[in-house]
Design goal:
By secondary structure, this protein is of the alpha+beta class. The chain contains four helices and eleven strands. Strands 1, 2, 3, 4, 5, 6, 7, 8, 9, 10 and 11 form an eleven-stranded mixed sheet that branches. The two termini are 24 Å apart.
Length: 226
């Protein structure tokens, strides 16, 4: 586990692909328990350690996850995420270059619980939720493109679904149309940056995740180090 920011109220860690943030039916140890164990050992905490989960990343996605270390931070972070005061930037490697290098995608997503998948529509349909993101092309190789994504809404599988709808499925994302999986089971989507006003101190916090140690990720990084 890699801690990239911590203080008395919040801790931000860099999640590896394949890890789950919260416990699920698989029974695998979630990242939340790993972080609790780290806090207990690092600060010699007796008894149970408080840790609040305020958002999640899909299992095959890597990058930054924010946790609350106090109940005060938890309630405030929950509200900040709800109203969009936490700004998250993602990087995605996609197979095809988008027709337009920068733009805003607006769709209406319908979640299929049984398939654990979302479907994108160009207009509002029953049970749909509006999904908006902004993307821009920031790097490329002969075969792949690197997109930077800003989420305006937080929907189930939103980035994966909307980019696939645009004709640019994320590398390795078989569920949304990628032709083949990545060897490690990941998808090439990184929660790259988190920006927020600290829920207690009110100081600005800006954290950037390292790029995965992978040949393609290293090759496709923007030359100007965004």
């Amino acid at each position: 586990m890699e801690v990239v920011y911590e203080d008395n109220h919040i801790i931000i860690v860099n999640k590896r692909s394949g890890e789950i943030v919260q416990g699920d039916k698989t029974g695998d140890e979630p990242l939340s328990e790993t972080v609790k164990a780290y806090i207990k050992e690092a600060y010699h905490k007796p008894g149970n350690v408080f840790l609040g989960v305020v958002h999640r990343l899909d299992r095959p996605v890597s990058g930054l996850v924010v946790f609350a270390r106090t109940s005060k931070a938890l309630s405030r972070l929950n509200e900040m995420f709800r109203v969009g005061d936490v700004h998250k930037t993602y990087w995605a490697i996609v197979k095809d270059k988008p027709a337009v290098e920068e733009g805003t995608l607006t769709h209406w997503l319908v979640r299929n619980e049984k398939q654990n998948k979302s479907y994108a529509y160009d207009r509002e349909v029953p049970r749909s939720k509006k999904a908006v993101l902004h993307y821009r092309l920031i790097g490329c190789t002969d075969r792949y493109s690197l997109l930077e994504i800003q989420l305006m809404t937080g929907r189930h599988h939103q980035i994966r679904c909307q980019l696939a709808r645009m004709g640019c499925p994320i590398k390795g994302d078989l569920k949304y149309g990628a032709p083949r999986s990545n060897p490690d089971g990941s998808i090439s989507l990184l929660a790259r940056k988190v920006e927020l006003v600290h829920p207690v101190s009110k100081e600005p916090v800006s954290v950037v995740a390292p790029v995965p140690d992978d040949n393609l990720w290293q090759a496709i990084q923007p030359a100007h180090g965004e």
